[in-house]
Design brief:
Blueprint lengths: L1 H28 L3 H27 L2 H32 L13 H5 L7
Helix pairs in contact: 1-2, 2-3
Length: 118
């Protein structure tokens, strides 16, 4: 049984590392902010999650699992929030090609400044 768990953890680490590598390559290769945000959040978080599961399988210790649960929850909370803030700031700076947006929910906020009262 130990060999099976070790093989599973090795496979999870390899898949997680490949996802993290694809996220890094995506950050370098993609040209605009939305696609870079996609590369920075989705495959990176999934790769990190797989690596944490592999560590938990490999070490087989409850204190380690408890620590990894907290680490994963923090990662799942901060990565989407950071991507949202970067995307919103890129939209406000005008670095996003507005013609490529299917729905522009922030168009009204550009017409009337938030503190203008109208």
């Amino acid at each position: 049984m130990n060999e099976i768990l070790d093989a599973a953890s090795l496979l999870l680490i390899l898949v997680g590392a490949a996802l993290c590598l694809s996220a890094a390559i995506g950050l370098l290769r993609f040209r605009d902010v939305p696609t870079r945000l996609h590369a920075a959040t989705k495959p990176q978080v999934l790769g990190f999650l797989l690596i944490c599961v592999a560590i938990a399988l490999s070490l087989r210790s409850w204190p380690v699992v408890a620590f990894l649960v907290v680490v994963v929850l923090i990662q799942l909370a901060t990565a989407p929030l950071a991507a949202h803030m970067v995307g919103r700031q890129a939209y406000r700076n005008g670095t996003i090609d507005e013609r490529s947006l299917y729905v522009d929910e922030l168009a009204e906020s550009r017409e009337t400044p938030p503190g203008a009262g109208g």
